[in-house]
Amino acid sequence: METPPSQAPGIHGVEIPAPRLPLRPGEVLITGDIAQDGTILTADLHAQAEEVIDVHYVTRHVHEVHQVQGVPLHRVLAEVSLRTDDHRKKDHLSFVVLARSEDGYRVVLSWAEIAPDLGACAALLATRYNGQILTRPTLVVPHDRHANRYVRNIRCLQLSRVDSASAT
After folding, report:
1. Fewer Cβ atoms within 10 A, N terminus or C terminus of the chain?
2. Burial class (CB in 10 A: 0-12, 13-18, 19+), 73
3. Side by side, which strands form the sheet with 53-59?
């Protein structure tokens, strides 16, 4: 059985990823410890967007209220197949989601935190912000008191397992 080029082992068994084409405006890459990388379009997300909600947060002692519309992050990631290890108990609970913006800002959420049957944090990929349709989605965490975990212009969602070797 021949190994596909994207799975070909590199030096010392390290996988060499297949080259990627640059993202087009409106595309978000989904990658990491998953069965297959993919992209989603902001326009497709917007077509699935739910009702408009108000988000409240404090920035530099100023209370702000914004209207957002989008798709729950857990619903977008429900289409992703994690590369779990059947020998590890509840392995999916060791995964994190790294949301990365065009300017390099990064925020991490745990898989359990966003799962509707566990933490259910209501993280949202907003496609409309204060009535304006966005080119790329913004990660919104509606119940946060501050907007520190809001990531504007997301270009990548990376799912990764946090293993004991990297935690020590």
Report:
1. N
2. buried
3. 53-59, 62-72, 124-129, 132-140
d(CA 65, CA 46): 21
Which pair of tokens denotes residue 165? 């070797």
At 78-127, the pLDDT tens digits run 988 888 888 888 878 888 999 999 999 999 999 889 988 887 788 999 99
Residues belonging to the chain: 168
Q: For residue 99, what are the CA distances in angstroms to 20, 102, 103? A: 18, 10, 12
Predicted TM-score (pTM) of the model is 0.81
C-alpha Rg value of the chain to the nearest Å: 17
Residue with tokens 């702000």: 64
The 3-state DSSP class for residue 125 equals strand
Are the C-beta atoms of residues 126 and 70 closer than 8 Å to each other?
yes
The residue to which tokens 């290890």 are assigned: 85
User: What is the phi/psi pair of residue 40, to 5°?
Assistant: -125, 150
- Distance, in Å, from the CA atom of 17 to the CA atom of 19, rounded to the nearest integer, reads 6
